Amino acid sequence: MNKNSKKLLPWSIILIITAAVFSGHFGVGDLIFPPVLGRSSGSSWFIAALGYGVINSLGVFIAYLAVSIQDKSLFGLSAMVLGKQFAQVFTTISMLIIGPIFILPRVSSATHEMAVAQFFPSLPIWVTLLIFFILNFYFAYNRSKVMDKLGKYLAPTLIIFVVILVIKGIFTPLAQPVYPGSPTAFTDGILNGYNTMNALGAALFGLWIVNEFSLRGVKDKEVRKSNLIIIGLITAFALLLTSTVLTYLGASSGVKFTEAPIGVLTVEIAKGLLGYFGIIVFAVILSFANLTTSVGLTSTAGDTFEQMTAGKLKYTTIVILSSIVGFLIGLIGLSKVVGYTVPWLMLIYPALIVILVMSLFSNFNKVKFATQIGVITAIIFSIGDFLSSLGFENNPFTKINLLLPLGKQGLAWLVPTVIIILLSHFISAFLKSKTTSSEIK
Fold it and tell me: What are the C-alpha distances in Å from 175 to residues 140, 183, 269, 353?
């Protein structure tokens, strides 16, 4: 026990890092998707929450576990499968989508449209975005202090206001879940969890955390592994807990607002539970959730591109560029940002899931060939969802996807990819055994 305890950082440091990582994950999607899911699931809200947790929370833990087992960042993991050159392309696309080009514009524009505009409707969006990204730069520019700033100050404020809303909703709900529940609750939960991109975020945050360990003097691989697993497990559980209670709020209080669209529902629930103070609570939660996510991803982008370019691109330079790009793209508004980036997410996310899951094998070389074939298969069967998201629904790829299991739910890639991975692995193992037998003879 003493030997294991020496492998862990002091719990005060672990909790600060975990709070920072949790706040980096908990963004606008985690605030708006679970309540809508709960409202549509009715009395099956808990089953829906489990489905959401499979992708959102278990996916996060798997990502951190894969990073810890292989002791590699997303770039390192993808390089094992795709080779260095393709890994650079894959990691760059992933980082740009989940960072400066998608998430930063999304969270900043959402802060204006869903929080600030409620109190200052005539305020131009550029003013909100300018303040947002000045704060983003302030909290992210100093790499050695970014985790402390998030974990000690921003994250606790976010958590306190979430707790206020949740406690009120649990003990004095506005209504009760509707019976009967949804027959597709579990699948609906999976699809909603898919939209948050938290597993992709975790794969990228892995490097961010490992670099934080280095800043705190943790160099040993096994020590990094132990700390990363603990932090990943607590973060995943915290995400599961918050998504479950927010799903319940949607199933209970949310049924009072049947016409409220996504994004508005959480506001209505907060207002219904807490009156005008509820609007303030929601605005604070949303603003802090968006800012912490933005800071975490900006800092991660700095670490990622500095690593991939071997220091040619400096951390501070990336932080500045990310803030500028996020500001400029955010000006086009929330709905347009979501519209142009979701197709790319649907194209790369399945391949990422394959890489993460297969990276859980400590002896990766035994499953490398199967992983490579699995990534190719996942990408091929993601093309249909990619094209349909762009508006080209009448194409052969999409038509084939609709005929496959889970195709109508946007998961057509899953079953074929699993089958191909298993077949590829067995064939590869069989051929290797035949070669070995021939060499012995």
Answer: 42, 21, 11, 38
